[in-house]
Amino acid sequence: MLNGRPRQRDDLLFHLRTRSPHELWLVIVDASASTRRHQALSDAKGLLAQLFDDAYRQRARLALLTASGHTPKWQVQGLKASSGLRDWLDGLGAGGGTPLLAALGEAGRWLSARQKRFPAEQQRLLLVTDGRLKEWSGLPVLACPGLLIDIERGPIRLGRAKVLATQLQAEYRHIDDV
């Protein structure tokens, strides 16, 4: 280059910056009525607040999907973590049914489309649930590493979240062990 002017063809070519690829954390929160029992969702909110802070510090992108009522709802899709998530978390309440299977299907479709758009992006899944589904079949295969946090509380635990984690090929942890 001569005073910022290109002299040859290679001076005009776009060169990628050398830095690590972005990370995307896909968080699916089960906010069904069963998560109100024994303060399970309240405990999960503390965990999620810490996760959002970590994502902000690590400059990770977040996708946030809640499963409550009749259909799952996207809160954030692939944006950088921000302080606005704290307001959403404060207002998060539990109620209604558990459209967790629909949320997993939606997440699978969204992740595969995003992978095509950003092939270098490192994707991770965090699923927060008590596993209280009547039945499940035809679980989607999510092409990223996952962690299921079991928030089931109370004297009688069904342990369905552990089975769900195995079928999703995700790591399993109970919230008390996190």
Summarize the structure.
The protein is α/β, with parallel strands linked by helices and 178 residues long. The chain contains four helices and six strands, in the order βαββααββαβ. Strands 3-2-1-4-5-6 form a six-stranded mixed sheet, with helices on both faces.
Plain-language structure description:
It is built from 4 helices and 6 strands, in the order βαββααββαβ. The chain has 178 residues and is an alpha/beta fold. It has a single domain, classed as 3-Layer(aba) Sandwich (Rossmann fold), CATH 3.40.50.410. A 6-stranded mixed sheet has the order 3-2-1-4-5-6, sandwiched between helices. α1 (40-57) runs antiparallel to α2 (84-91).
Structural class: alpha/beta
Q: How many beta strands in the DSSP annotation?
A: 6
- Shape label: elongated
**How much strand content do the residues show?**
15-25%
Q: In what order do the strands lie side by side in the largest sheet?
A: 3-2-1-4-5-6
Mean pLDDT: 85
Distance between the termini: 54 Å
How many domain modules? 1
Chart the SSEs and their pairings.
Layout: E1 23-30, H1 40-57, E2 61-68, E3 71-80, H2 84-91, H3 100-117, E4 122-129, E5 146-150, H4 160-168, E6 171-174
Parallel strand pairs: 1-2, 1-4, 4-5, 5-6
Antiparallel strand pairs: 2-3
Helix pairs in contact: 1-2
Write out key terms for the chains shown:
178 residues; alpha/beta; six-stranded mixed beta sheet; 4 helices; elongated
